Amino acid sequence: MEKDEIKNKNLEIDKNEIKEKDNPLDMSKYSLNTLPKKEPSKVEKWMAIIGGPLALVVFVLLNFFTDISFLQNIDPASLSKKARLIYDSVGAEYFTSQNISMLAIFIAAIILWITEAIPNYLTSLIVIISLVLTGVLSEVDAYHQLGHKVMWLNILAFVLASMLVKTGVAKRFALWFIVRFGKNSSSIFLSFIAINVILSAFISATTAKAAILLPIFMVVAAVYGATGGKNRNNFGRNIVLQNLLQINLAAGAFVTGSGANLLAAALISGSIGTDIFFTDWMKIAFPVSIGMLIIGWVVGTKIIFPLKKNERVPQIPGGTDALKKELDKMGRINFEEIRSVIIFISVLALWTTDKLHGISPTAVAFVGAVVALMPRIGVVKWNDVDVPWHLLLFSAGAYTLGAGFKATDLPALSVDALFNSLGFGADTPFWLLYVILTGGMLYSALVFQSKTMRTLVFVPIAIGVAQKFGHPIMSLAFPVAMLIEHVYVLPFNSKPALLLYGTDHYSWSDTFKFGIIMMTIGWIVSIVMGMTFYKYMDITPNGLGIF
Q1: How far is CA 284 from CA 297, 527, 537, 541, in A?
Q2: DSSP 3-state assignment of 505?
Q3: Closest by CA position to 244, among listed 528, 26, 510
Q4: Whether 219 contacts 322, CB under 8 Å
Q5: How many CB atoms lie within 10 A of CB 293?
Q6: Cα 22 to the center of its chain, rounded Å
Q7: Res. 383 pLDDT band, cuts 50 70 90
Q8: Sign of CA pseudo-dihedral 179, 185, 189, 194
Q9: Could you give the 3-state DSSP secondary structure of residue 160?
Q10: What is the full DSSP assignment across 346-403?
Q11: How far apart are CA 531 and CA 543, in angstroms?
């Protein structure tokens, strides 16, 4: 009798454990470590198989068997200052061979990054050593990219983001906002816009934002009947894809929103001889980003994935209470959370007043991270800090490619040759240059896997084109920089895109359909802004020469 009772109790416990494990409202099941790994499709498997051999073949053909005629007659006067010094020291023939090697390494790296034949960080390490062995860069120039100030900002941003995660401030804020304002499907989507914009002012790592918000919007999706896989619905598609869009485009509102933004600001500042401050970037980028997020919400929920009547209301009885219970479970705000809020408000205050004190965003983040890690004063220990070094190595490879471009001047030489072959002369209309450059920057995100690399390629190109045709550098370089964060079309286009694809709430066709439409709208918005708002802000001259 006693054995039967024990057996029944054990069965009851097992059932409860299974029930808890399968509970779609259990927020803990949606952490990065517990999300199921998505099996690659047949196309992805084949891409991984052919990626390595294809990259090797392309590298060998370009580096050893291709004669790039447009590099044979380089005008030294057209080179950048650094490239001119290298040209004068090594001679025309060796400088040309460096450009060919640079092109071969770049194309091979793109193939490896897209196909993911090997891990991305390993591709970056191969890129770095290849640039050294081919003589494109010296060991000092290649290796010190890991110490770039933007790399330091990324590390420090993860320290500050870890502080938010450890103390629970980010989770508390997001839960409170959804519980307070997310009364229906529309208000939930608008609430996530507000949450993403506010977090973007604090956190410069889009992957960190995705990690913080993923458990919350996954529970919200479950409340509205979407648990992924066979239970996909348009609410689930929208809540995940909208957050992907918001995580990226909200980062574009602030120069500290991502390391790529800071890099673009540094490149442009170096060319115009004037610093681009936090407020300079925000007063132009912020309204454009907010407008794009509102457009994305309308396009997604009203046009591409319209919500059915039953998808606009909770499907699990009392489901919305799960979020409130999760918030209540956190208890009252504690002293650690208050200290972390003070640190973040201080960091943000210093960022927004950088024109007054002149301290760089990286230096401000340095001070914030030091205070956060300080014994007895701070709120986080080094062992609590989650720094994804594989992502940093990946970024270091992209920066090293940028250093290679700077040494060889390959982007400017290629653009110059392309424009000359197309017959573009001094009388080329400004609007045509603007449309080509902004379109190239946007749609390059379909094949580039790094915002940093796109920035290193296209911002210098925009600067070079502006100088070549006698236009203000800001008129082309800044609008191009405003398009850095459009990395949401396909899963491999950014780390948040890859992460959120693993939720299994949408397919490749879903994300492509929504993403390519939003990207095209982004291009149209950029052109309209060039004719109106950018003109008003003295960025573009005479509204692209049309008005």
Answers
A1: 21, 14, 8, 16
A2: coil
A3: 510
A4: yes
A5: 22
A6: 32
A7: confident
A8: negative
A9: helix
A10: HHHHHHHTHHHH---HHHHHHHHHHHHHSTTT-S--GGG----HHHHHHHHHHHHHHH
A11: 4
Confidence of residue 27 (pLDDT cuts 50, 70, 90): low
Contacts for 61-64 with beta carbons within 8 Å, 24 or more apart? 62/100, 62/103, 62/104, 62/107, 62/108, 63/100, 63/101, 63/104, 63/134
Rg for the chain, CA atoms, rounded: 25
Token representation of residue 107: 């194309």
Rounded to 5 degrees, what are φ and ψ at 8?
A: -65, -40
Q: Is the pLDDT of residue 267 over 90?
A: no
Residues 33-77 pLDDT 10s: 555 555 666 777 888 899 999 999 999 998 887 766 555 566 676
- How distant, in Å, are the alpha carbons of 31, 60, 96, 445 from that of 487? 23, 30, 33, 6
The answer to whether residues 520 and 490 touch, using CB atoms and an 8 Å cutoff, is: no
**Collapsed DSSP state (helix, strand, coil) of residue 489:** coil
Mean pLDDT of the 248-262 span: 88
In this prediction, residue 145 carries a pLDDT of 82
Amino acid letter at 321?
D
Pair of tokens at residue 431: 């609007």
- Find the largest Cα–Cα distance for the chain: 97
CA 323, distance to chain mean position in Å, is 28
Give residues with Cβ within 8 angstroms of 377, minimum separation 6. Answer: 339, 371
**Listed range (117-126, 386-395, 507-516) with the worst mean pLDDT:** 386-395
Q: What is the pTM of this model?
A: 0.75
Write phi, then psi, for 231 (nearest 5 degrees): -100, 30
User: What's the CA gap between 221 and 311, in Å, rounded?
Assistant: 10
Total Cβ atoms within 10 A of residue 353: 15
Question: Got the DSSP string for 288-300?
Answer: HHHHHHHHHHHII
85-89, 224-228, 500-504: lowest mean pLDDT where?
85-89
Query: 528 pLDDT exceeds 60?
Result: yes
Q: Nearest Cα to 266, choosing from 258, 274, 110? A: 274
Calpha distance 427→517 (Å, rounded): 33
> Encoding tokens for residue 460?
């210098």
DSSP bridge pairs for 438 = none
Range scoring the smallest mean pLDDT among 210-224, 307-321, 328-342: 307-321
Cα-based distances in Å from 89 to 85, 138, 221, 410, 414 = 6, 14, 61, 17, 22
For 228, list phi and psi in degrees, rounded to 5: 85, 175
- CA atoms of 121 and 127, how far apart (whole Å): 10
Give Cα separations from 207 to 157, 213, 219, 226, 438 (angstroms).
11, 10, 19, 23, 25
